[in-house]
TrEMBL record, chain A:
Keywords: Nucleus, Ribosome biogenesis. SUPFAM superfamilies: EPT/RTPC-like. This is RNA 3'-terminal phosphate cyclase-like protein. It comes from Lachnellula hyalina. The lineage of its organism: Eukaryota, Fungi, Dikarya, Ascomycota, Pezizomycotina. It comes from the Eukaryota. Residues 12-341 form the RNA 3'-terminal phosphate cyclase domain. Pfam families: RTC, RTC_insert. One of its GO terms (molecular function) is RNA endonuclease activity. One of its GO terms (biological process) is endonucleolytic cleavage of tricistronic rRNA transcript (SSU-rRNA, 5.8S rRNA, LSU-rRNA). It is found in: Nucleus, Nucleolus. Residues 205-319 form the RNA 3'-terminal phosphate cyclase insert domain.
TrEMBL record, chain B:
InterPro entries: FSAF1-like, Ribosomal_biogenesis_FAF1-like. Residues 25-34, 61-85 have a biased composition (Acidic residues). Residues 1-35, 49-85, 187-288 are annotated as: Disordered. One of its GO terms (cellular component) is nucleolus. This is Protein FAF1. GO terms for biological process: maturation of SSU-rRNA from tricistronic rRNA transcript (SSU-rRNA, 5.8S rRNA, LSU-rRNA). It holds the Pfam family FSAF1. Residues 1-10, 278-288 have a biased composition (Basic residues). Residues 202-241, 258-269 have a biased composition (Basic and acidic residues).
Amino acid sequence: MMTPNPEFLRFTTHKSLTQRLVFSTLTGRPIHVSQIRSSSPTNPGLAPHEISFLRLLDSITNGSSLQISYTGTTFTYVPGLITGSVVNSGDVVKCALPESCRRGVSWFLIPLCMLAPFSKAPLNVRFEGEGVITSATETGDVSVDSVRTAILPLYEQFGIMGAKLELRVLQRSCAGSGGKGGGGVVELRFGSQVRLPKTLHMNRNPGRVRKIRGVAYCTGVSASGNARMIHAARGVLNPLVGDVHVAAQYDQAPLISSGDRNDPGKKKRTGVGFGLALIAESSAEGVIYSADVAAPSSGGVTPEDIGKQCAYQLLENISQGGCVTRVGAGTVLTLMAMGSEDVGRVRLGRDVLGTEDVILLGRDLKKFGASSWGMRDAEDDETGDIIVSVKGIGVGNVGRKVA
Amino acid sequence: MATNLGKRKRPIAEANPQARKLEREESEAPELDAQEIFRRHFEAQFKPLPVVQSTAQQVEDVSEDDSSEESEWEGISEPEEESVEVIEHTDAQSRMAAMSKEELKAFMGSKPPKSSLSIPLIRDKEGALIKDDDASESANLKKDLALQRLLTESHLLESSSNPTLSGKNRHKATDLRLQALGSKTSIFKQEKMPITHRKGIVAKETEREGNRRREARENGIILEKAKMKGKKSSDGKRDRGVGAPAVGKFSGGTLKLSKSDIHDIEGPKRSPSTRGGGRGRGRGKRGK
């Protein structure tokens, strides 16, 4: 991979940073990112969670090199081979997130899952430390429940065995005070590696929503909140779908070190809160809509509000249509673009395709050498959905190719 | 007289709305009850209904009625009347709507849930589940059994207090199965109780049966034959202890035979002309 004179792809700002890093690692093109929060007088440069992600990339790849400028506003990344978790003892890579992390752990998990099918060995990563937030966050990340129930099932259609994927939530945590930090422990075990993920043809009608499932979680607050959230959500959803079942999950708040210098053994509880994650499965295979709402760390909302809000969010996502929601679109489009050299088709709602994330993704893909997307209107009904045709690069699994 | 009339009018006018109110309350109460009963019945058979709106409306209705009827009375301050406090009672519905154990396990485990997961509900003896599409003979037998049980025990699920086959209903189902297998008594039959209670129960039972028969007779309905409750001829089948003599009573080192015993041994005295050399002579009726 290490060419003597690498030609860097140049990017600016921290927007869709993980996506660019994933593309870079998969295609083997080195990148140079500049102007990262350079205009911010107080917090210039890379944020703590971004640093954590770079370190994580470093630990699951072999031969990657990373140079960060003094202020952190610029860095270069030369990717290596994705080796997975053979190097460390105990077959699991540990990734400690700092207390100042504001993003949910799904911010790490979703791009990591995109890399994992191309890894040489099974990729097992455990997130721990004082910055792991398993719930949905105010910064827009989904909860781990949504990752497990809405994102991971998408991999099945790319020929990646769902039975070998695991996302263990060993300790739940909501965002701590000020939206910073938690104390959760999450372990991702991605045991299914493929030579080349096959592409996908989801251009049919997305079908009708058949059942709704979900997880209500209360961490460190009264467990009756679960029942209240579920009741409120069912109040909205029951007239529309008969089959609504939501599981309730109550956990104690995680214990973390209190950071008291005089008494280093002292512990405190953090990451108190509650939230609701809902998924709607349609009659068409593999079509899952999801919604995710958690109580803000500042508090002041009732479980009923959260339940109702989450139900409405789910309805909004369903109304956007298409076969993939906004949350899953990045994963699906990336895997299609990186997979076998076929043309795959996926049907997306107009509002899903028109989001900033998806458009940025398309532009980035083009910059990394993927062919452009073809788009046309779905003509079989009046939904106004768009069928996106994506041709794969066929990068495949370099580690597998050698081995 | 006129003043008298005026005075008299007032209490009547005041009494009227009270009476109306009473009437209305009385007429409303059974209606609500009936609705409640229908709702429970429906929920027991199908899915729970969303109740949130109706309760809220009811609360509002009642408060409106109150305010219109008691408009003459100005004791309550304004802001209290304006803000109607709606109280929702969260009930056991969310508990009833929980997932089944298997589904919960599949959904809440660490693996991503399968999108098309149909969980079979019939288990075999080891507790393993039988798939819906399993067409083997044994699986079919088990499905038959499950269907039979469902048919015989489904009436237990109709009770509104406990619409599941757990708790009290589980014991009732066990009792039904035992009786179907030939058990003489119910497991709910209490064996030991004070004799006065037992007597009371028996007396009540006979009285109820007697009443039923009497009413049927008066109405000209023919009932089944009354079961004869006479004493059983128990002395013949009396269980004698081990080592005890088959005939008579052994006490004080002597075998005592009563007259009837001797009569049994000797057999009926018949003249030899009627029956000569018959067998069984000198032997008891019982053939011991």
